[in-house]
Amino acid sequence: MYSALPAGTIQFPDRRKMTNQLRSGARKRVFGRRPQAAYTFAEVLVAILIVGIMAICLLACFFSGFAILQSSRENLRATQIMLQRIEAIRLFTWKQVLDTTNYLKPTFLDYYDPLGSTSNAQGAPYSGFVTSSIPTDLPDAYRTNVRTISLTLYWTNYSGNQATVRSRQMETRFARNGMQNYLWGAQ
To answer: β-strands 27-29, 107-111: how paired?
Structure first.
């Protein structure tokens, strides 16, 4: 098979004469072709299944992430609406706090995007309820000069076809002559 060559020279076998040994012991002749590497049909199906499951999981993560983001935005807007109302109430006089028909109205309606009214895309409606009560945890001497004002907000959050009613509540105290005189004592 090899011819006599000078020292240091390498001779490669003729590819046309190469043979492969089979398991049965028989020899198979390979004529000028290299063995081809390929995947079986079952391996391809398993790979497609794995890629499909990964794609579905990725889309599910995106969907839940967007739903959480929307819920956070709605919660933040609810907090903003409540703070806006509470700060407006803090500017009222004592007579305005006691007037529940003109100033301290018991109900109100606000929207996620109030400026979207021109395009009819205001978003989720927020229903608010304001209650004013005499606090029970203060001494009788000045209980009638202080009011506890509670503001509760309700809105509906939609996740797909499922509607979930959400709510937030805030409380503040309003005193006739300022809070320092009633809660921390006169100086």
So the answer is: unpaired
